Amino acid sequence: MTVLIFTFSNDNQSIPLVIKAIEAKGEKAFRFDTDRFPTEVKLDIYSGDFEGGIVTDGEHKLDLSEVSSVWYRRMRYGAKLPDSMDRQFREASLKECRLTVRGLIASLPGFHFDPMINVDRANNKQLQLQIARQLGLLIPRTLTSNNPEAVKQFAQECKEQGIVTKMLSQFAIYGENKEENVVFTSPVTDDDLDNLEGLSFCPMTFQENVPKALELRTIIVGKQVFTAAIDSQQLDGATYDWRKEGRALHEKWQAYNLP
Fold first, then answer.
1. Would you say 166 and 185 are in contact if contact means Cβ atoms under 8 Å apart?
2. pTM beyond 0.70
């Protein structure tokens, strides 16, 4: 049987490492780069008297009846569609790509890591904070708002430790020379509080600043808990968001045992 991995072509080295581990156990893995669909990867899904499908990537083919497990990794639906396409047609194509791939995943039996419905639910930050608090975890005071006055009041309430701001979604803004600009978690200054007019176009999330001693990332698979730690405070640029120095800290991650 085969593990079908949904990812994108520029994903990190975790994909080949996992594929190698799967093959070492005598199993098969097939990589589906969602950014290369539909421009390079072909997908045929049949419904009716005959149900099944085929994924074709160059000379490699996968009969979907062979899939026993799905790894829902990272999605970049239709990212390689040419930018020269008419914007309306490109957006329509991206929607179809997304619904086609998600429909495929939803229809596949077997073990899913993780089920899409769980991933979608976990992406709701306000729900995350609510559940964490219900479970007894301490969470920083948080405000998501497009109201400048509410933000200023929140900043005043957290004046002693200060506040940071972040976005709920991940995105990049590209300049004229294709330079990438990403919004990282950042401290909010007095000047920022005097210039909150942009909130009328886009809400933001604000939290009381919690100085970091160590950053932990925990993944739970079944009943197994895996935790990694990184000392992000060793670099000035990573004080508020380790991802800002992600490349420099890449090899600094260490296994960590939770108490």
1. yes
2. yes
